[in-house]
Amino acid sequence: MIDSVLLSHGSGRGLDDLLHAVILPELGTDPAAPLEDAAVFALPEGRVAFTTDSFVIRPVEFPGGDIGKLSVCGTVNDLAMVGAVPHSLSVAMIIEEGLDVEILRRILRSIRRESEMAGVSIRCGDTKVVDRGKADGIFIATSGIGVVPPGLDLSVAHAQPGDAVVLSGPIGLHGIAVLAAREGLNFASTAVSDCACLHRLAAALLKASRARTLRDATRGGCAAVLNEIALASGVTIVVRQSAIPVPPEVAGACSYLGLDPLHVANEGRFIAIVPADEAEAAVAACRTMDHGHGACIIGSVEQRTRVPVLLETIIGSRRMVDVPSGDLLPRIC
Amino acid sequence: MDSAAFNDPAAAHALVDTIAGLARGLPEVRLMEVCGTHTMEIGRLGIRQLLPDNVRLISGPGCPVCVTPAAYIDAAAELAASQGVCIATFGDLFRVPGNSRSFAQVKAAGAAIEVVASPRAALDLARKSSRPVVFTAVGFETTIPATAAAVKAAASEGITNLSFFVAHRLVPPALDVLLADPSLRISGFLLPGHVSAIVGAKAYGALINRGVPGVITGFEALDILAGICSLLGLLARKEVAVKNEYTRVVPENGNPAARRLMDEVYEPCDAVWRGIGMLSQSGLNLRPEFATFDASVRYGLKAFGDEMPEGCGCGSVLKGLIPPEECPLFGVACTPENPVGPCMVSSEGSCAAAFKYGGAR
Fold first, then answer.
1. What is the pLDDT of residues B87-116, one digit of tens each?
2. Residue of A258, A307, A325 lying closest to B337 (CB–CB)
3. How far is A2 from chain B (nearest CA, A)?
4. Does residue A240 sit at the B interface (CB-CB below 8 Å)?
5. Across the A/B interface, how many CB contacts are shorter than 8 Å?
6. Distance from C-alpha of B174 to C-alpha of B61, rounded to nearest angstrom
7. Is B50 in Cβ contact with A317 (below 8 Å)?
8. Which end of chain A has the least Cβ crowding within 10 Å, N or C?
């Protein structure tokens, strides 16, 4: 019976015990099957999308998810944003000695649940244990492979003047939920992370419109993504403050903490650049899907001027939207 | 009323029209705000872009972090780095550069820097550990009563491992200095809502003496626009007065109980403002009966001067002589990621606002 992860669980017989008693059963893998050095499998026909991400969030469990769910959604979403159908994932865990095995089990169950729901297979993995104080509970890195359907060519550099900007739902919930859980902010304790896999929502939008760009608004929030698109495409993006849905708990926390909701991270929201005449159809398609009920048009793409991203404020003036500096809210994904 | 009522677009447009009407009869007017929250909100709401060309909004020394000398940061960082002291500080100071390093840098090197949301949290930190804790008591009248209360609590509880490194600054004496400088050509002041809630409207007598009007105003879109409107009205009528347009928060007399608390714990002293220099009776020292809680006494810290990094235009920016964009370092050598001066990194700094929201047209 393992109560907590020890340094000795990082290699040899100890690792074998941890794998066969905890990790493989919780992930739903047959512990009796031989463990090879690499997974060997065939992919469906098409171009392959390949991505990797690492997760160092504190706390590891938060309202609306945990680091396990996040590590699946983050990588699935990176695949989905280039239009790929997610196929397979790898999961590497760096565990700090002393981690309660019950927490590890919950995280593993989240990984299993989320990947099954997303329809992706965990093909391979790795486990390392480091000394106490050298990691914060657990860090996870996932890599993902997906297959891009023929004819799709999404890019951050494809936005064109005249296009519409679509947002898939209310912003800021992940960042504020994590911050509230970590810092004990009672006034924001109702915030629940938006952490979710978006590939089906993205597929619905791509079916309804010839979207040019998809980008999930994670670190740096919508502000960072809008700036990336504007700079890469050589355009100016104008968004309307009154059109951007900000949940009251996010608005309240941001106002108190001096944050801009556009800078706060999301883990289940994307921005899409869509030809203007197809934007209504794109929004309507999103609204019929999970995680897309709050989809809306928030602005438009214009010819490039001095400022890449402008916000039309509630009182009708225009001001720039910058990329947040490095450490607005550290360790939230 | 919720905040939507203070941000109503129709009411805002009506005020913008009134401002345009009043401005037509006036020469160029330079209105200075002396509150970092005003600076940020003016930028965030894009208010400059709505004003006629002859109405200029200028940011003054309204950010307490920005006027804190770099040597203060150096001294506190040194305490944490080499004397095993835990520095408890507001988040605003965390990334502010000293002459040699910031709190963020000494923390990364292993020193104990704790970001706290209030002086009370520093008190809790000291109660919970035996480690010496130093609280960085920085801020204007808005913050001073809270640190005074914490000093008193530490004294009455006999908490021996907590001391206060005081760099509080007072707003009214600074206004007097700005008014005395003819090169600034200030036509009127937008006076700070929160500071005024403590000091009261009567604290701005110096304005009247020097013939410059002022309006106390709040922080929502309509507050700021109404404040500008009211100030232009005074200028149009050539009326020298201090008007209170923020009566829902600011009583005429301010908060006498908070001022008594300040007086009980602190006494005025001459103080250095970063980039501006020594201003008479513009800072505070702990009174002798609280000297054991004074970090500069406890650790023998010497008084600091006002050394500035080469080329740093903070002084001219803080006084409103130049807009942030005219500082030679702005956006080139000095950015929010690699700040040279605090104005670029403080959440209330003029340069931070200009960098973030695009500043002047």
1. 999 988 988 999 889 998 999 899 999 988
2. A325
3. 33
4. no
5. 57
6. 8
7. yes
8. N
Where is B56: in which H helix or E strand? strand B55-59
Percent of chain A at pLDDT above 70?
98
From B3, B49, B347, residue closest to A317, measured CB to CB: B49
Which residues in chain A touch residue B5, judged by CB atoms under 8 angstroms apart?
A: none
Q: Closest residue of B to A306, CA-based?
A: B358
- Flag whether residue B47 sits within 8 Å of chain A, measured between CB atoms: yes
CB B357 to CB A320 under 8 A? yes
Q: Is A327 on the interface with B (CB under 8 A)?
A: yes
Question: Token pair 């006084």 is at which residue?
Answer: B319
Euclidean distance between the first and final Cα of chain A, in Å? 31
The pLDDT of residue A328:
56
Task: Return the number of other C-beta atoms located less than 10 Å from residue B179's C-beta.
Answer: 18
Taking 90 as the threshold, does the pLDDT of residue A236 lie above it? yes
- Residues 6 or more apart whose Cβ sits within 8 Å of residue B91: B115, B117, B347
List the one residue out of B64, B89, B136, B123 whose CA is nearest residue B295. Answer: B136
3-class DSSP state of B4 = helix
Looking at residue A330, its pLDDT comes to 65
**Cβ–Cβ contact A311 with B under 8 A:** yes
Contact A79, A152 (CB under 8 A): no
Regarding the domain delimited by B70-170+264-298, which CATH topology (the fold level of the hierarchy) does it fall under? Rossmann fold (3.40.50)
Point out the residue among A260, A322, A326 whose CB comes nearest to the CB of B355.
Answer: A322
The model's pLDDT over B187-223, given as tens digits with 9 standing for 90+, comes to 999 999 999 999 999 899 889 999 999 999 999 999 9
Residue with tokens 């509230």: A180
Encode pLDDT of B109-119 as tens digits. Answer: 999 999 888 99
Burial B21-32 (b: 16+ CB within 10 A, else e): ebbeeeeebebb
ipTM computed for the complex: 0.76
